[in-house]
Write a structure and sequence with these properties.
Length: 194
């Protein structure tokens, strides 16, 4: 019998799924907003979904619940995974998931910790994130702040020197902190005392 009132029913919320908002997985239709891991509630897509019968999971939760257990089946080569998935609502002994956690975390400490651990640029004092980080003098710098403190020349690993927590190009460092006298770039002739 044809379905005259719209599309198929969503596998998660059982409401009608119209074609424009439909995602199909394992012969079932889902709303884009309902296409979530049954354990951790993370949004899924075609590359991250793993289906088991009528349930859908992210690959991590699927592996914890249905993957092999024991020595050598951890997250990396040669490790033992002791993660039972309890923090995700997976009860591996009974084989059925606990009620799903709310999509908003109750404990924001992980997020707060990440925000606190961000390095600060010694030049401007702002946070330096991995995409813009350059290390110099043992400290993280923004790419735009990685300049000579005297002449402002942009620095690279081949021409950077540091002194007292500040960066200099080799020319400015030599002029200001290098040896003085004949043959050292500072003086070209001997000054006579009268």
């Amino acid at each position: 019998m044809p379905n005259w009132g719209g599309g198929a029913k969503c596998g998660a919320c059982e409401k009608t799924v119209y074609h424009a908002e439909e995602i199909q997985c394992n012969g079932r239709s889902f709303h884009k907003l309902c296409f979530l891991c049954m354990a951790c509630r993370k949004a899924l897509d075609s590359t991250t979904v793993a289906a088991h019968e009528s349930e859908i999971y992210c690959k991590t939760c699927y592996g914890r619940k249905y993957g092999p257990k024991g020595v050598g089946f951890g997250q990396g080569a040669g490790c033992l995974s002791t993660d039972t998935g309890d923090h995700l609502g997976l009860n591996l002994q009974q084989g059925s998931p606990k009620p799903a956690r709310p999509s908003t975390p109750n404990n924001a400490s992980k997020f707060a910790k990440k925000m606190v651990d961000v390095d600060k640029c010694p030049r401007c004092g702002k946070s330096v994130y991995a995409a813009e980080k350059i290390m110099g003098g043992g400290k993280p710098w923004h790419k735009t702040c990685f300049r000579c403190a005297i002449c402002g020349k942009s620095l690279e690993s081949t021409n950077v020197t540091d002194k007292d927590g500040e960066l200099y190009c080799k020319v400015c460092y030599a002029k200001n902190f290098g040896p003085k006298g004949i043959g050292f770039g500072g003086l070209t002739q001997v000054e006579k005392k009268e």
